[in-house]
Amino acid sequence: MKDATSRISAVLACALLAALAIGCSEKSAGSTTETTNGTVALVGVATLSSGAPAKGALVRLIDDERWAELTAAGETPVLDSAVADETGSWRVEGISGRVNLQIDADGEALLLRDVGVADSVVSVDAELEPASSLEGNCEGSHVGLALAGTAYGAVLKGSSYSFPAVAAGAYVVVALHEAEGDSSAELVSSATLELEPGDSLVRDLPETEPRRLLFDDFEDPDNLTAVARAYGIESGWYRVSGDSTEIHTAYLVDSALGTSYLWMQSVLTREDDPEDWTILGAYLRPDEKEMDLSGLKTIEFMARGTGVYDLSLYSGALDQPENIDHFVASFTPESDRVFGKVVIPVSDLRLDERSIESRPELLWENAAKRIKAIRFIIRSENGEGTFSLAIDDVVLTGVTLADFAD
Ligand SMILES: [Ca+2]
Predict the structure, then answer these.
(1) 257 CA to centre of ligand 1 in angstroms
(2) For the residues of 201-265, what is the DSSP string, one character each?
(3) In the chain, what is the greatest distance between 2 CA atoms, to the nearest angstrom?
(4) Is residue 159 predicted with pLDDT exceeding 90?
(5) Which of 36, 267, 271, 331 has the fewest Cβ atoms surrounding its Cβ within 10 A?
């Protein structure tokens, strides 16, 4: 994918990148393990750089492996926390596995990555270092900035951001974008940087873009797709049908919802005859060029209507006529009156039976590199009669407009 270095959006890739870029650092700390009657605990003594006990230091154990997943879901990655007592001692029980240990005191901090908590008592004595600060400008539609694998989140004010006091170390800055329609945010890595103890780093971060492409919102009176409008080239939805199918399509306006949408009605008369079908389709690119959609995660849209439809991605890898479904997933609108959201993950796409005959070995990952069109198809083998489909807000996740560039 183009721009992969600046926009590694896969949630797991963030965690992986964080692990690769940062590695394990155990400086300023010594850890020992003792076995005491099966008690699982992480204990330690936190000391300030002056040598004084870090009284009142906040100790947090962070789930590094699930950090991205939890953060995207709006949940805390902090597994447990403790406050150091007057001697700087702290203790957390009941945690096992490998965690990141973040300790923050007044003006001092320490982050230890990949600390193993075995089935015993692990002792981590840590000397804190002067905290660093990070600030600058970051334009864009993000709703938050965080340092991967930590509990640090930025203070946002307009287009400026600041992390006022963080532990020294190497970090991946992750931008959180609101995902439409569901509760998960999208995480996009924005920058990697390194902070020395006591640093006051001013760094403007590149604007991040969620990997979410509005393919069409059907708001153009000339029937151009949103992608076509971005290119300034004429390309819209087309309809094709088998011999005996009557079809009507229109852009309709719902004044109550304040939006317009695409509507199609098909009259299918030849039951059990796969030649009776209707396709409503649009080329991804106005020039019908094949696009690499390897990064595609889901196809999402609003739908209402009647009948059983196939959502089809038409791949040039199959070299077959238009009426072949190619990679498909079927869906049935929940209601004829109210729009409902349909989310189709690419893992649901299957090579349809007509395409299997000619290319049984073709895998999605190969077909995905040569996608030409997205189509909604209804066939009389699913029923005879008059069927309607209204669609709006077709979104492709995992890709951006930049992926559609030459
Ligand atoms: Ca619309």
Answers:
(1) 9
(2) EE-PPPPP--SEEEEE-S--TT-B-HHHHHHT---B-EEEE-TT-EEEEEEEEETTTTEEEEEEE
(3) 87
(4) yes
(5) 36
Equal fold, 1-208 vs 212-404: no
- Where helices occur in 314-396 by DSSP H, the ranges are 353-358, 364-367
Interval between CA 208 and ligand 1 midpoint (Å): 25
- The predicted-structure confidence for 95-121, as pLDDT tens digits, reads as follows 878 899 999 998 999 999 998 877 678
- How far does residue 91's CA lie from ligand 1's centre (Å)? 55
pTM for this structure? 0.60
Q: Transcribe 268-323 into DSSP letters.
A: E-STT-TT-EEEEEEESSTT---B--TT--EEEEEEEESS-EEEEEEEGGG---TT
Classify domain 1-208 at the CATH topology level: Immunoglobulin-like (2.60.40)
Of residues 156, 157, 153, 159, the one with CA closest to residue 140 = 159
* CB within 8 Å of 347: residues ≥ 6 apart: none
For domain 212-404, the CATH superfamily is: Galactose-binding lectin (2.60.120.430)
pLDDT given for residue 7 in this prediction: 30
Query: How many angstroms separate the Cα of 196 from the Cα of each of 49, 114, 172, 385?
Result: 14, 20, 15, 70
What pLDDT score does 1 carry? 33
Distance from Cα 217 to the centre of ligand 1, integer Å: 4
The domain limits of the chain are 1-208, 212-404
Ligand 1 center to 88 CA (angstroms): 59
To the nearest whole number, what is the mean pLDDT of the chain? 83
CA of 259 to the centre of ligand 1 (A): 4
